[in-house]
Amino acid sequence: MSPTHAEVESLKARYTVAGQEHLFTFYENLTPEEQTALFNQLNKLDIERVNQIFKKAVSSSGNSSDTKKQNLETLPDDVFDSVLDANEDKIKEWEKLGFDMISQNKVAVILMAGGQGTRLGSSAPKGCYDIHLPSGKSLFQLQAERILRLQKVAQDFTNCKNDVIISWYIMTSGPTRSATESFFKQNNYFGLKEENVIFFEQGTLPALTYEGKVFMDTKSSLAVAPDGNGGMYAALRKEKVLESMKSRNICYAHAYCVDNCLVRVADPIFVGYCISKNADCGAKVVRKIDPHESVGVIALRDGKFNVVEYSEIEPAVAEQRKLNGQLTFGAANIANHFYSVDFLDRVESFESELEYHIANKKIKHIDINTGELIAPSKPNGMKLELFVFDVFPFTERMAVLEVERKEEFSPLKNGPGTASDNPETSRRDIINQHVRYVEKAGGTVTPGDGDSPGNLTFEISPLVSYSGEGLEKLKGKTIKTPLILDTPDDLDKC
């Protein structure tokens, strides 16, 4: 429906007051359809909020890095534990509590899956990517099957008579939503019930000049970009995900990024740990490989929980160690978080205080004076992003659990053949983990035809084992590769 003249003039006046009246430069020369499209985009956009975010981001980036480096403290003992050091009874206690909550359908999963596989040489959503496991399973399928298996394990562990449901909320971006939903439909939701897989979309923000002016992508549209994985919080509210969680009586959520092939989705140990701490926000971490690994760490800054980037820590401080020999600032962030639904609900109350980060980019845009499309050769503007950990300073009760890197963290960031964090390392890390599962169960894996000890064709489906459980039948067995254990029945064939 076309806007009235009065509606257009009213919107123009609002944008003039905001200093963004240039966005109407080409309006009179557009077709009626283009006018309506531009009007709707401008009318939907909270331009005053965009200006506020820009001013706050520019003001924050103007602070010297020396200021940021000051007032850092290590995590207090009462908010930090490690599965590497905790006794087995304590871990089982956390796990039992996690299973109890999962079996009561009080735990949901939030997947941050808005990215495309551009760096991997793919235009598809990153979760569709095949890391060349023997089974050919995508990241989405691995994670879906872990949820399926965990639902069964939780049901058996607690002797629950009702169906255990772990609701899966999948955050896409505008460019990936359609392809993601189609991928799930084509694969019958990987065995999950369709009504328990809920898609929602993260928000966008306009791309800006360094003076804060909004770029135009065409004469009838603004240049926009996803607002970062921290846009999850506003999207949960605006896309009615929080409403859905409350209607399902969900109290807790586990959130993670799609590119970690080893992620333990809705990990009962982590969930139970955070609940035992009465935490409203929690984070999994791994130990830094060395003092100067390029990774952010969770620590206190000015007395508040924060992810501190490696560039913000002086080399001498980065090398400091505790009495036990561990790095003082060694809790490496892996974007793997726990939340109470009450906390997610509370984010709105401090949302205006969150500081967006500036990413300098080369932004294609329409020249307002000439109407020509400009493709810059160097950065000419900024995209504004919120990071998922930017809410940490506002938590009232934080919990941080250290886990073993080789068991839980192997990110897929780079394309085939690169130095690290690539499809080859993802495949290697999953296969090595599955070999350890067999060995822990009392079996052995030996290479068969065409394989070698460092290059095995072997895989255990998540439908068989979530994290090494259920493999008792392999005790005393020698498994010769190539082999895929695809169903529990396959254990009898070994």
TrEMBL record:
Pathway: Nucleotide-sugar biosynthesis; UDP-N-acetyl-alpha-D-glucosamine biosynthesis; UDP-N-acetyl-alpha-D-glucosamine from N-acetyl-alpha-D-glucosamine 1-phosphate: step 1/1. InterPro entries: Nucleotide-diphossugar_trans (IPR029044), UDP-sugar_pyrophosphorylase (IPR039741), UDPGP_fam (IPR002618). It is an enzyme of class 2 (transferase). GO terms for biological process: UDP-N-acetylglucosamine biosynthetic process. GO terms for molecular function: UDP-N-acetylglucosamine diphosphorylase activity. It catalyses: N-acetyl-alpha-D-glucosamine 1-phosphate + UTP + H(+) = UDP-N-acetyl-alpha-D-glucosamine + diphosphate. Its EC number is 2.7.7.23. The keyword Transferase applies. Keywords: Nucleotidyltransferase, Transferase. The keyword Transferase applies. Belongs to the UDPGP type 1 family. This is UDP-N-acetylglucosamine diphosphorylase. The lineage of its organism: Eukaryota, Fungi, Fungi incertae sedis, Mucoromycota, Glomeromycotina.
